[in-house]
Every structure is written in structure tokens, then in C-alpha cells.
Amino acid sequence: MRKRLIAGNWKMNMLRGEAAELARGVVESTRRLAGKVDIILAPPFTALDAVGKELQGTGIMLGAQNVFWEERGAFTGEISPGMLADSGCSWVIVGHSERRRILGETDEMVRMKLAASLKAGLKVIVCVGETLEERDRGHTVKVVEGQVVKALTGTGISDPGGLVIAYEPVWAIGTGRHATPAEAEFVQSAIREIAGNILGDSAARIRIVYGGSVNEENIRDLLAEPDIDGALVGGASLRAESMASIVETAGEQ
Ligand code: PEP
How far is it, in rounded angstroms, from Cα 25 to Cα 4? Predict the structure, then answer.
């Protein structure tokens, strides 16, 4: 049985004081569940230290929202996997659709970020998902397959527990509109099959989570599907009570 995972992507929100307060709220309200569900908080880089201090000894893990693929050098403004580890991160999100769409991140960049992060000992959440136009044309599985294959091929994944694939339909992110559990399950079971073609049997142990307007109301039905092992949560993770309620539901087996 795969352990459920709930990750909060705070995006470009929260000054350090606000971030520490939110982290404290999540710690207090999820205390009972920290061992039962893998919980990750991914604040902006500037708040990693403040949030990391609040998470110490709690079992909740610290994640970053992005990373660069080189370890050091003349890459102004970038942050390396080793720097994230040094800042207390055990997780990093790569390939979020906002980075692909707004910042021009390509599949090749995502692959390099994944490979460099795994090499540095970080665990990685790789995001994939189709746009509304791609979905309307019936290309969802083809698009997601391309993203998964390009991200995973040749990256040398030795610990399936250290890789999470987040299926995040672009049309569902921050829109209040989410995939139905059946729609998400259809794509996520296809993702498991695609990952299996690359990674073999260990794909059965990789967690595949859903992201896109997840909240305390829709999480239960999503988690009832066999290939939905948790959630990557944006907006709802900015409120401790919503995050706690989502984690609580994930803790019920
Ligand atoms: C996300 O940022 O990954 C996300 C899924 O956002 P939201 O939950 O707000 O749709």
C-alpha cells in the first residue's frame, strides 16, 4: 500500500512571518496525522528557513517550488539542489504548469531538474498535465505521456518513494474547476502504465497525486480512486484549517 501524500504549494505567497504562522497552524492541526500521511509544505524560497524552523521535529517535510539543474556557477538568480538540501528541503516540485507556461520551462529542463535533484538526494514531485485546448481535442493522454516519458527517461530512479508524479490538468489549477475522480483516475492509471514502461515494476510503488482545485469538499472522492495517492494543493493549502481537513481525510484509510 502506498502511503498517501499531501503537499501544499504556497506559490508566490507569504512573507516570512506569515509563512511561519501558517506553518505553525498546519503543525498544530495535523499533529495526530504526521506519521500516517506524508505532509509537505512548499513555501517560497525566502520563507524556507522560517518554515523549516517550525517544522523541525514534527515529521512534516519541507519542499521547494523550483530548482536549477547545475550545482554551482554563473547562473544568476538560480538555486541548486544542494542549496535546497542545505536549507532543510527534502522535497522539490519540478515542472509546475505555471513555470512551463509563464517561464517557458521545457520538458528537457524538467528532465534536467529531476535528474539533478535526485542525484543530490532530494525527493521530487514532477508535475504534468494538459491544457484545456489539448483536452478538448482529446489529446490528454498523449500530452501527459510525452511529458512523463521526457521527464523520466534516463534519470536513473533508484528509490520509487522519492518520486511523485502530480497529474495537474492546467485547466483545473486555481480555477475552482477540478477533474472528476473518474477523469483523474483514467489519466493517472495511464500514467502508472507509462511509468511502468520506463521504470519496470517499481512504477507500482510510485505515488501519483492529483492537483487542481483540490479542497476539503472534493478530496474524499478523489482519494477513493485506486491510482490517486494524494494531492498537490495550491489555494486551499494557504489556510491551515483547509490543509488540516484535507490531511485528515487522507489519513482515513
Ligand atoms: C497547484 O498549484 O499545484 C494547484 C493545484 O493549485 P490549486 O489547488 O489552487 O488549483
Answer: 21
**What's the rounded mean pLDDT across residues 217-231?**
97
- Write down the domain spans for the chain: 5-252
Alpha helices in the chain (DSSP H): 16-30, 48-55, 81-86, 97-103, 107-119, 132-136, 140-152, 181-199, 219-223, 240-251
Ligand 1 atom closest to Cα of residue 11: 2
Q: Which atom of ligand 1 is nearest to the CA of 211?
A: 5
Domain spanning 5-252 has what CATH number?
Answer: 3.20.20.70
- Tens digit of each residue's pLDDT (9 = 90 or more) over 140-196: 999 999 999 999 988 878 788 899 999 999 999 988 888 999 999 999 999 999 999
Judge contact between 47 and 16, C-beta under 8 A: yes
Taking phi over 0 as left and psi of -120 to 50 as alpha, with beta for the rest, 118 belongs to alpha
Q: Is the pTM of the predicted complex or chain greater than 0.85?
A: yes
How distant, in Å, are the alpha carbons of 58, 137, 145, 183 from that of 140? 38, 8, 8, 10
Name the residue at shortest CA distance from atom 6 of ligand 1: 234
